[in-house]
Design a protein that fits this description.
The complex is a heterodimer of chains A (292) and B (168).
Chain A lengths: L6 E3 L4 H11 L3 E4 L5 H6 L7 E4 L9 E3 L3 E5 L4 H8 L6 H6 L6 H4 L4 H7 L5 H8 L3 E6 L2 E6 H4 E3 L2 E2 L6 E8 L5 E8 L9 E10 L2 E10 L6 E2 L1 H7 L7 H14 L10 H27 L1
Chain B lengths: L9 E8 L2 E8 L4 H8 L18 E4 L2 E4 L12 E3 L1 H7 L3 H9 L9 H14 L5 H7 L11 H17 L3
Parallel strand pairs in B: 1-5
Antiparallel strand pairs in B: 1-2, 3-4, 3-5
Helix pairs in contact in B: 3-6
The chains are: A alpha+beta (292), B alpha+beta (168).
The complex binds flavin-adenine dinucleotide and FE2/S2 (inorganic) cluster (FES) (2 copies).
The site of one FE2/S2 (inorganic) cluster has 12 residues of chain B, from loops.
């Protein structure tokens, strides 16, 4: 047994879980899939007094799809979401990104809520949430609230969640017509954390870029939109090579790179340009398909 | 540092392991793979890194492969657990075992139970995975002996055999 001693509770309802969380807030950790928390416990990087295991709380792993969008319960296993979105054009970003989250055995257990709560800067799910303009739903004994993904990730493993709050769901609004999505990352092996990655969305009308969300991850201390690059593309033709080159240069120059990790700062910066360049070429092909 | 073991939280569980119902009381911080190995003597699942990277501890819970080192035994209450011992006895791995044997896809055997269970889940889900898909799916299982080539060979052969058997 490697973890330090802890008290263990496996509440059977959300209310019970929230009461426990309120009671122990700073000394407790929610145990979701355990795919990040259990390693931290085993390495004693985490030693909470309480583990609140929410795997037995009913209803937290429900996926609900409506005309408005996709509501994914926090305890939905990463692979369960992947199965749901596998052939859904609106959720192609999730379908492309999730296979890069660790390995099958880890995705069978790891949850979407856990990925979002952890806010690892190299994780795919937080970047997807921003690129899809998702909303994070939080609950506590004080009530429920919603935080847009764009305001949720504050820094390295840091989010807008209060210690007594639990993520109960992530809501992805259905993209309006014209939105195209693409995913790419560079990792040493399939399933490893990325050295750099991109979740990209672009609304294209008659081959012109109307809107863009270019979210880089595994680069800064949190998933980050390349706003200057987005602005360099909006209003331009998807086939405009000069505009694309300017956007790539802007992304490369403007992005904040967190030092440390598996590769150098300059290499990451280079990958940012490469990932965007490749993705813009794909968008041109996709935009052409739809409108031409 | 002294540890006050009187404080050790314990949890009662009732778990099906390879078809047998087992009732036990386990320390809350005992991992599922430790319980299976040390308490039940099912030593076919191995313990390598104990933080999720090597895949040697792979076991099947409620029909899906997972890391036995990242789940607590306490969480297996009410679950259906299958270890390599149960999977082999059921015969469902026979074709993969034969292919591993023929292609020398194991040397020391430390990774083999995890490789077999992971490969079996892939073959149950995909009719015709190519070498690329096989490599992707086995990327979470470390082998320090074979260099992987022979493992990919074996899984590829088993996939092809499965396809022929299903008549396609
Ligand atoms: C070898 C390995 C490789 C990996 N590779 C990747 C990868 O490439 N990309 C990637 O994204 N991830 C990767 N992971 C991490 C994996 O995806 C985790 O599943 C995920 O980060 C956390 O989800 P979880 O459900 O397991 O959460 P847990 O490990 O249970 O919890 C993580 C943290 O979030 C908190 N938490 C969990 N759920 C909630 C909730 N609903 N509300 C509030 N707080 C909550 C917990 O208290 C804890 O602090 C890898 C893990 C391993 C072991
Ligand atoms: S021992 Fe579980 S993954 Fe290595
Ligand atoms: S056969 Fe020795 S680790 Fe794979």
């Amino acid at each position: 047994m490697k973890p330090a001693l802890f008290s263990y509770a496996a509440p059977r309802s959300l209310d019970e879980a929230l009461v426990l969380l309120a009671e122990h807030a700073d000394d407790a950790q929610i145990l979701a899939g355990g795919q990040s928390l259990a390693p931290m416990l085993n390495l004693r990087l985490a030693a909470p007094d309480w583990l609140i295991d929410v795997n037995r709380v009913p209803g937290l792993d429900v996926i609900e799809e409506t005309a408005e969008g996709l509501r994914v319960g926090a305890m939905t296993r990463q692979n369960a979401l992947l199965d749901h979105v596998a052939d859904a054009p609106d959720w192609s970003l999730l379908a492309q990104a999730i296979p890069h989250v660790a390995h099958r055995g880890i995705r069978n257990r790891g949850t979407i809520g856990g990925s979002v709560a952890l806010a690892d800067p190299a994780a795919e799910a937080p970047a997807c949430a921003i690129a899809l303009d998702a909303v994070i739903r939080l609950a506590s004994v004080r009530g429920e609230r919603e935080v847009p993904a764009s305001d949720f990730f504050l820094g390295l493993y840091e989010t807008a969640r209060e210690p007594d709050e639990m993520i109960v769901a992530v809501f992805y609004p259905r993209p309006a017509p014209g939105w195209l999505f693409g995913f790419d990352e560079v990792a040493r092996r399939r399933g490893d954390y990325a050295l750099a990655g991109l979740c990209a969305g672009m609304r294209v009308e008659e081959a012109f870029v109307r809107d863009a969300r270019l979210v880089f991850f595994a680069v800064g201390d949190r998933p980050t939109r390349a706003r200057v690059a987005e602005d360099a593309l909006i209003g331009r033709n998807v086939a405009d090579i000069a505009a694309r080159a300017a956007a790539c240069a802007a992304a490369r120059a403007g992005i904040e790179v967190m030092p440390g990790g598996d590769c150098g700062v300059e290499y990451k910066r280079r990958l940012v340009g490469v990932l965007l360049e490749r993705q813009l070429a794909r968008f041109e092909a996709m935009g052409g398909d739809r409108d031409g | 540092m002294t540890v006050d073991f009187a404080q050790e939280a314990r949890v009662r569980i009732e778990t099906r392991v390879n078809g047998r119902t087992i009732r036990a009381e386990v320390p809350a911080r005992l991992s599922l793979v430790e319980w299976l190995r040390d308490e039940l003597g099912l030593t076919g699942s191995h313990v390598g890194c104990e933080h999720g990277v090597c895949g040697a501890c792979t076991i099947v819970v409620d029909g899906s492969c997972l890391r036995g080192c990242l789940m607590f035994a306490a969480q297996a209450d009410g679950c259906d657990v299958e270890t390599i011992e149960g999977a082999v006895a059921s015969g469902r791995l026979a074709a993969l075992q034969e292919a591993f044997y023929r292609h020398a896809a194991l040397q020391c055997g430390f990774c083999t139970s995890g490789m077999l269970l992971t490969a079996a889940e892939l073959l149950a889900r995909e009719r015709n995975p190519g070498r690329q898909r096989i490599r992707e799916e086995l990327s979470g299982n470390y082998c320090r002996c074979t260099g992987y080539q022979s493992i990919v060979d074996a899984v590829e052969v088993a996939a092809r055999a499965q396809q022929e058997e299903n008549g396609s």
